[in-house]
Amino acid sequence: MYVGGGLVVLGTVAIGLIEMVAGSPHPVSGEGQIVHEALVPLEIRSYIILLGLLVWGAYAVYKVAAGDRATGTARREIGTQQTE
Amino acid sequence: MATSDLTPVRTRMLGREVSFNVSQPWLSFWLVIMRLIAGWWLLHAGLDKLAGWPFDASWFVGGAAAGTSIGPFVTMFSSGAGLAFTNVAVPVGQLLIGLGLVFGALTRTAAFFGAFQMMFFYFINGETGGWAHGVVTGELLGILIFGMIATLGAGRVLGVDAYLADTKFFRNHPRLQYLIG
Question: Which of B48, B59, B74, B105 could form a disulfide linkage to B160, CB 3.0–4.6 angstroms apart?
Fold first, then answer.
């Protein structure tokens, strides 16, 4: 989860900060669109975010295929004790 | 808010102790709201497409997708059997995902496929416009909300999954918790 999350945060927040601090100005057009020369190529940024999302997706599929009962998931309301 | 309504969360993240309290009624409330709105988002999209049947995705999976980072994969579905599949899978999928989320049935499965679809829309809509609306768009936030709905098991609050989780079949197959909840 952390690897996937790290990639997504890297692609959005970290590169976003780099662009803000060191990149070229982002004028916003009349339709609210941003057109600018990106410091980090947009393709690379896309791939980083895509990779992060794919890692999350793969983790989800893995958990469904191979996971045991998740620790701490309650089967009943709090208050009824049941021996397993 | 009475303190007895708070439930403690205590865990470890990145090697540190993390501990905070969550208000039980507010958490339950937000789970239902998120589930309803995210569910309506997809249900409405699916119903719109069904109302305008037949649905043709070729402009999106063929033209718009070519040249994006997931283009090589998506354009495989832009003609023939792949396109025929997509033209049914997208509207029907959105309808089922939307219904599942709104009624809280098979919520984790619905949320997963919602996020799966959103991923395609996120990259194709984003990249074809050169990310002119930024990298954090509604589609990415949708992916995050679906992730939250699945993680927190929002279907168990005022949803069909609350009933399903109590059935004997579910209790005998604990692995179903990853699909239901």
Answer: B105
* This prediction's pTM: 0.84
Q: What's the total number of domains in chain A? A: 1
> How far from chain centre, in Å, is Cα B111?
3
Disruptive mutation site among A13, A33, A37, A46 for chain B (greatest number of B CBs within 10 Å): A46
| C-alpha separations of B10 from B7, B18, B27, B46, B159 in Å | 10, 6, 16, 40, 27
* Residue A27: inside a domain: yes
> A-contacting residues of B 88-107, CB under 8 Å?
none
Structure ipTM over 0.90, yes or no: no
How far A1 CA sits from the closest chain B CA (Å)?
12
On whether residue A15 sits in a domain, the answer given is yes
B12-53: per-residue pLDDT in tens? 988 899 999 999 999 999 999 999 999 999 999 999 998 988
Per-residue model confidence as pLDDT tens digits over B158-173? 999 999 988 888 888 8
Size of interface A-B (CB pairs under 8 A): 61
Report which of B155, B151, B148 is spatially closest to residue B170, judged by C-alpha positions.
B155
* pLDDT tens for each residue of B70-98: 888 888 888 888 888 888 999 999 999 99
